[in-house]
Amino acid sequence: MNKFEKGFLLGAATSAHQVEGNNIHSDLWVIEQLPNNQFDEPSLDAVDHYHRYEEDITLLAKAGLNAYRFSIEWARIEPEQGKFDELEIEHYRKVLAYCHEKNITPIVTMHHISSPEWLITTGGWEEESTVEYFKNYCIYVVEHLGDQMEYICTINCANVGAQMCSEALELQSNIPISAERQLLMTETAKAFGLAEENRANIFLSPRTEEGDRLIMRAHEAARDAMKAVCPHLKVGVTLSLLDIQAETDNNVEAIAEWEKDFKHYLPFLQKDDFIGIQNYTRKFIGDKNSMSASEEIELTEQGYEFYPEALSNVIRKVAEEISLSIIVTENGVCTKDDTRRVEFIQRAVAGVQACIADGIPVKGYMYWSLLDNYEWYKGFVKKYGLIGVDRITQNRMPKPSLYVLGDYCNK
């Protein structure tokens, strides 16, 4: 086994809403409680990472890993517009301090999908005021915790709304919307105090072009403001990127897809310190139509092709376009068979090491996820974690894959 060089950030990732539990002031918590919502189950206690973070970080450290990517929940820090909770800031200070105690480098994400309920009431991720609100929240956090931080991701999967183009077309065209869908939209609007005809613009909503730009302007504003307060911070944004493959190099559809997913964001990244890459699989595009996986291709329990090599392909494509340092902020596989997770990790890591050997500045790899957690609309049934969790007792059950990943670390 070839270990990474000393100083390479090797660890795992989580997000607050998926692991902490009881984020009662967030927009997703509101939606999860609606009778006709699209979530298979509510998050509730999740995996109680809010109270068990020491146990989880200890397991990470004992496996030999040296980094932990986690998010600060905006809805905890600012449960009401303009009112900040000092007790919650103190909680995250303790999380950061415990990371340092265990010689774990924290990589902090300021926004990971969930938002404060009040933000959606004021227009959410299509409203101009959100840029200022997000910037002010980020300033508050680094003013109080910046001395404990080094790496910050402003916004997780900043491009996810733009990737939902097919759903956006359904919402904005004359295609009839089902009665169930219309009822959900109406109930959601009411839950946020909006008029029935208005859409609740949560982060997972299909994004307009202006909303897409707004998110990146929020990233820029927060980045610049945080670095003004704490110049030592290394700040970047994370993008969800498929390995887009085509039969020919000049495939128009593939070129357009890469432009939509990545290249049109480049102007907003020029002052960043790194870019966070998140990849799980590839997408193959033929000359005329996208080609679905054949029966011979192994699919994960998420329905993705089992293709760890997608990550290194994406790293190389990104490196061709921009000279920033790269941190793999998410990469993983959904499976209950940990032997498949082990193989996925081994092949993905080999690809990362090959990229580094070729001179690409990859500085870190964060496996998704540290824990089997709440996988958004699919609830708790999807298993990505290096650590299993009995949700009745909340007991932690480390898997062999945790130690396989840890063996690559050279602290």
Question: Would you spell out the secondary-structure blueprint of this structure?
Answer:
Layout lengths: L8 E5 L2 H4 L7 H6 L16 H14 L4 E5 L2 H4 L8 H16 L3 E7 L5 H5 L7 H17 L5 E5 L4 H4 L1 H8 L6 H13 L17 H21 L4 E7 L2 E4 L5 H10 L12 E5 L3 E4 L24 H12 L3 E6 L7 H20 L4 E7 L18 E3 L6 E3 L1 H7 L5
Parallel strand pairs: 1-2, 1-10, 2-3, 3-4, 4-5, 5-7, 6-8, 7-9, 9-10
Antiparallel strand pairs: 11-12
Give the proportion of residues in helices: 25-40%
Pattern of helices and strands: EHHHEHHEHHEHHHHEEHEEHEHEEEH
Supply the number of structural domains. Answer: 1
Biggest sheet strand line-up: 1-2-3-4-5-7-9-10
| Alpha carbon gap, first and last residue | 15 Å
Tertiary shape: globular
CATH architecture descriptor name: Alpha-Beta Barrel
Structure, explained:
With 411 residues, this protein is of the alpha/beta class. The protein has one domain: Glycosidases (TIM Barrel, Alpha-Beta Barrel), CATH 3.20.20.80. Helix content is 39%, strand content 15%. The chain contains 15 helices and twelve strands. The strands form three sheets. It has an eight-stranded parallel β-barrel with strand order 1-2-3-4-5-7-9-10, surrounded by five helices. A hairpin with a 6-residue loop joins β11 and β12. α13 packs parallel to α14. About 2% of the residues have low confidence. InterPro entries: GH, Glyco_hydro_1. One of its GO terms (molecular function) is beta-glucosidase activity. Keywords: Glycosidase, Hydrolase.
